[in-house]
């Protein structure tokens, strides 16, 4: 890790405090940040992304104390935060009286999704602003999430300033968990594997049922979409690009290997970047190798299915 660019962080904080947008790095993907207590600032996130207003945002906190001013933490919620924060786990919790968040940040729900990111630049920025920051992935709605500052610039041009913190180490978005009494319900598979949560908490993590009362409104089926058409669980036909996984893949310019050693962490980290690269080559089809459904494979396959969904 290089030393923090304190000047760049102070400049970004000044923009955010003034109600402007600024993209910033997290360990998962780059976020398009705004002061979560400022309705106009949050509205400009929706406008800039072209994101539907009914889709609430994740609010990023500097620490658990800031999070507890915004939402009600049950003992179970607090244990999750103590175990996994800072880290790629977003908790959906009931709003607390006097929370101060803009209604548009939560899309008018009585719950909020909170997380404390595990990235030195994000944490420094959160401390410097002293504000909770609403931040969806920093891509135009429906496009691939960015894992480098360069990809953010490609998506938004000069419209959005970007605080550069290098490539993201996880590469897929946070896992989203709702808490229902003493039950844990996964609303989105993500960078924290479900079995890791189960093991640390000593209890099962259920999958959100289709159309259930508790759900993440943003889980539209088509999402994270490259321009190319995608074929999953397969091998490439002549002329198709290939997203490979494991040691046996051939090498050529239209092939990217998510992980030659079959490591799912490496694969998650490479997923969006490699899709970006293959897409930028202008191919019409990207074939994708089968990925195991274990550990982080759950999140990787979720993103691949959304990228391949009809749109
Ligand atoms: O890794 C991440 O989570 C990244 C980085 C920037 O932190 N952020 C991210 O945000 O992925 P976004 O906006 O792309 O995804 C937010 C998801 C959506 O599916 C939304 O519906 C869900 O969180 N969500 C937000 N608030 C919610 C709530 N109160 N109840 C249920 N789902 C919620
Ligand atoms: Mg997103």
TrEMBL record:
Q: Which GO terms describe its cellular component?
A: cytoplasm
What Pfam family is a match, any one?
Sua5_yciO_yrdC
Residue positions binding L-threonine: 28, 60, 115, 135, 174
Q: Which reaction does it catalyse?
A: L-threonine + hydrogencarbonate + ATP = L-threonylcarbamoyladenylate + diphosphate + H2O
Q: Indicate the segments forming the YrdC-like domain, all copies.
A: 6-192
Q: What superkingdom does the record give?
A: Bacteria
Localisation: Cytoplasm
Q: Which GO terms describe its molecular function?
A: ATP binding; double-stranded RNA binding; L-threonylcarbamoyladenylate synthase; tRNA binding
EC number, UniProt record:
2.7.7.87
Q: What class of enzyme is it?
A: transferase
Query: InterPro entries of this UniProt entry?
Result: DHBP_synth_RibB-like_a/b_dom, Sua5-like_dom, Sua5/YwlC_C, Sua5_C, T(6)A37_SUA5, TC-AMP_synthase_SUA5
Residues that hold ATP according to the record = 51, 55, 111, 137, 145, 188, 224
Q: Which GO terms describe its biological process?
A: regulation of translational fidelity; tRNA processing
Which key words tag this protein in UniProt? ATP-binding, Cytoplasm, Nucleotide-binding, Nucleotidyltransferase, Transferase, tRNA processing
Can you tell me which family this protein belongs to?
Answer: Belongs to the SUA5 family.
**Which NCBIfam families does the record cross-reference, listed alphabetically?**
L-threonylcarbamoyladenylate synthase
Give the protein's function: Required for the formation of a threonylcarbamoyl group on adenosine at position 37 (t(6)A37) in tRNAs that read codons beginning with adenine.
Know the name of this protein? Threonylcarbamoyl-AMP synthase
Originating species: Devosia ureilytica
């Amino acid at each position: 890790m290089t030393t923090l660019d304190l000047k760049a962080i102070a400049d970004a904080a000044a923009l955010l405090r003034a109600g402007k947008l600024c993209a910033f790095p997290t360990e998962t993907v780059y976020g398009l940040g705004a002061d979560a207590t400022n309705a106009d600032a949050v509205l400009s996130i929706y406008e800039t992304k072209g994101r539907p207003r009914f889709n609430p945002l994740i609010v990023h906190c500097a620490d658990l104390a800031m999070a507890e001013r915004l939402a009600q933490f049950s003992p179970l919620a607090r244990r999750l935060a103590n175990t996994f924060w800072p880290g790629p786990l977003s908790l959906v919790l009931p709003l607390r009286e006097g929370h101060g968040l803009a209604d548009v940040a939560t899309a008018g729900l009585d719950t909020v999704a909170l997380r404390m990111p595990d990235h030195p630049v994000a944490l420094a920025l959160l401390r410097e602003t002293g504000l909770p920051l609403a931040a969806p992935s920093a891509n135009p709605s429906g496009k691939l999430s960015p894992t480098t500052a360069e990809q953010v610039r490609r998506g938004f041009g000069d419209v959005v300033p970007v605080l550069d913190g290098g490539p993201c180490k996880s590469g897929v978005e946070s896992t989203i968990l709702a808490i229902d009494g003493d039950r844990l319900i996964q609303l989105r598979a993500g960078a924290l594997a479900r079995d890791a949560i189960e093991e640390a908490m000593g209890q099962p993590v259920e999958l959100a049922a289709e159309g259930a009362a508790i759900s993440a409104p943003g889980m539209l089926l088509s999402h994270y979409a490259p321009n190319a058409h995608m074929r999953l669980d397969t091998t490439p036909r002549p002329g198709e690009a290939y997203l490979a996984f494991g040691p046996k893949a051939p090498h050529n310019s239209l092939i990217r290997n998510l992980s030659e050693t079959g490591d799912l962490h490496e694969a998650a980290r490479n997923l969006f970047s490699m899709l970006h690269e293959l897409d930028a080559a202008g191919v019409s089809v990207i074939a994708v190798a089968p990925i195991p459904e274990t550990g982080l494979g759950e999140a990787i396959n979720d993103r691949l299915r959304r990228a391949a969904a009809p749109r």
